[in-house]
Structures are given as C-alpha cells and as structure tokens.
Write a structure and sequence with these properties.
The protein starts with 9 loop residues before the first helix and ends in a 20-residue tail after the last helix. 44% of the residues lie in helices and 0% in strands. By secondary structure, the protein is an all-alpha fold.
Length: 87
C-alpha cells in the first residue's frame, strides 16, 4: 500500500481517501486541515486559476501514516543504548 503514496498527486489523494472510506470532511479532520484543502489537493489546481496546488510533504507523510493505521504519534521511543537518540 505504501507504493501508491510516493509522490502524491490529486488522483492518489482521492484514491487514498476512498481506500480508507473517508469523506473529504473526514479526511480533512484526520489530516488536521480544512475540507477545502482536501478538495484542492484532489483537484490539483485552484478553481480561480490554473495554478497547480502542491501537496506538502507533511500531508504526504500523514497520509502514509493513516494508511498504515497510525492515528497518533508521540515520537520515537528513546533507548539508553541508542547513540542516535542521546544528547
């Protein structure tokens, strides 16, 4: 399922939302954005112009997390023996 989430575009956002059986409003709530933003990401352009709407990396990552069943994330677990997580 992760392969479809690489380089998201509006078509993929729409497919992701439908795969999870979410309305635009529900997807917006889960992503912490407005329903209008979901609509813009799905259409790929702003209604008032032909300007392309870029999907932020944070939204891409949030979509991937939700697709993987991660609803909340409190950060990495800290292990005293892990050198990359110690100060």
């Amino acid at each position: 399922m992760y392969a479809i989430l690489v380089d998201l575009d509006g078509t993929i956002i729409n497919s992701w939302r439908k795969l999870l059986k979410l309305t635009q409003a529900e997807a917006a709530t889960k992503l912490g954005i407005s329903r209008r933003s979901v609509e813009l990401y799905e259409s790929g352009t702003r209604g008032d112009s032909a300007r392309e709407v870029a999907i932020p990396r944070a939204i891409e990552l949030a979509c991937a997390a939700l697709a993987a069943g991660i609803e909340n994330y409190a950060g990495p677990e800290r292990h005293p023996t892990s050198s990359c997580l110690t100060a």
